[in-house]
Amino acid sequence: MMKAKAIVTLATVCLLAACASPQGMQAGGMASRQDMTGEELRALLANGLTVKLGGAGEGYAGEVRLSPDGNGVGQATFEDGRSLDVTGTWTIEGDRFCRAWKFNDFKRECETWRKLGDNKAEVFVDGERVGLNSW
C-alpha cells in the first residue's frame, strides 16, 4: 500500500511540474496563457475602457481611455521622466488590437494580447513582447 501511495504522489508531482514548466504551459497546462480572440477583445472594449499601461517592473506606466468609437486618449511616462502621447485611433482586426498613436507618428501597429488572468494581458507586436495592459 505504501508503494502505491508513493507512486501516486510522484505522478502528481510530475504532472504539476509539467504544467508549471514553460513547455507545459505551451501544451495547454493548467497555467497556460492564451491569446485573446477578436471576439474577446470586442466584448472587452464594446463600451469603452480605461486601460492601465505598464506598471511595476515594466519601465513605464500610464493609461489610455479607449472609446467605443475607435478613439483613444492617454499618456504614459517612462521611469526616466520622458512621456508619450498615447492619442489616436484603434480597431480590432482578426484577433489583434490595431492602433495608430501620436507618439509613433500614427503608424499603424497591431498587437496580440495574451491573457494573464481576468484583467491583465501581455502585449506582443510581431511576436515580441512590448508591454503589459491591465483594466
Task: Spell out the blueprint of helices and strands.
Elements: H1 2-20, H2 22-26, H3 38-45, E1 49-55, E2 60-66, E3 71-78, E4 83-85, E5 88-93, E6 96-101, E7 108-115, E8 120-125, E9 128-134
Antiparallel strand pairs: 1-2, 1-9, 2-3, 3-4, 3-5, 5-6, 6-7, 7-8, 8-9
Q: Biggest β-sheet: count, sense, barrel?
A: 8 strands, antiparallel, barrel
Low-confidence parts lasting 5 or more residues at pLDDT below 50?
2-31
Arithmetic mean pLDDT? 84
Quantity of strands, as a count: 9
CATH structural fold name of the largest domain: Lipocalin
The radius of gyration computed from the alpha-carbon positions, rounded to a whole number of angstroms, is: 19 Å
Strand order of the largest sheet: 1-2-3-5-6-7-8-9
CATH class of the largest domain: Mainly Beta
Strand residues, percent: 35-45%
Number of helices: 3
Instruction: Name the helicity range.
Output: 10-25%
The end-to-end distance, rounded to whole angstroms, is: 51 Å
Name the structural class: alpha+beta
Number of domains: 2
Q: Tell the overall outline.
A: globular
Order of helices and strands: HHHEEEEEEEEE
Report the CATH architecture of the largest domain: Beta Barrel
Task: Describe the protein in words.
The protein is of the alpha+beta class and 135 residues long. The protein folds into 2 domains: 1-32; 34-134, Lipocalin, CATH 2.40.128. Helices cover 24% and strands 43% of the residues. It has helices at 2-20, 22-26, 38-45; strands at 49-55, 60-66, 71-78, 83-85, 88-93, 96-101, 108-115, 120-125, 128-134. An 8-stranded antiparallel barrel has the order 1-2-3-5-6-7-8-9. The model is unreliable at 2-31 (pLDDT under 50).
